[in-house]
Amino acid sequence: MPVIKEFTVLLEDRPSTLGNVCRALAERGVNILALQSFPTGGKMVTRFIVDNPSTTKTVLVNEGLTYVETEIVHAKIAHRPGEIARVASRLGEANISINYAYCGLEPGTNAPLVFFGVADVERAATILERAAAAAARQSISSKN
Fold first, then answer.
1. Which of 4, 72, 115, 139 has its CA 20 to 30 A from that of 102?
2. Among 69, 45, 84, 54, residue whose Cα is nearest residue 121
């Protein structure tokens, strides 16, 4: 199922804050798979997907950071034009609004992943599973 944990941290908007958090995670062996960070009102909203949520929680607490853990959906896509449009359109056709999105890479394969923050995670997950199955069938039939 394409549901994954996302961490959102509100950091001070000053030099080294993002680097310090990323370094603390790396020192504990946590790999960041995707990252989004942007300024707002003197702070930095930083969202990230990691390969080890349990250790990430420990690191964030040890760093004295407040965080929110959320479930979001993701889709593994082919690395070619139109793939994000295809997946995002499937959600739109199901009347699921995308609140935000960002990209990362699948560990081991470096396949592109797109992460979507949506209100209806379970329904979106079902749609993305169907879209992935349809894409896989299409890929197999185009090879034959």
1. 139
2. 69
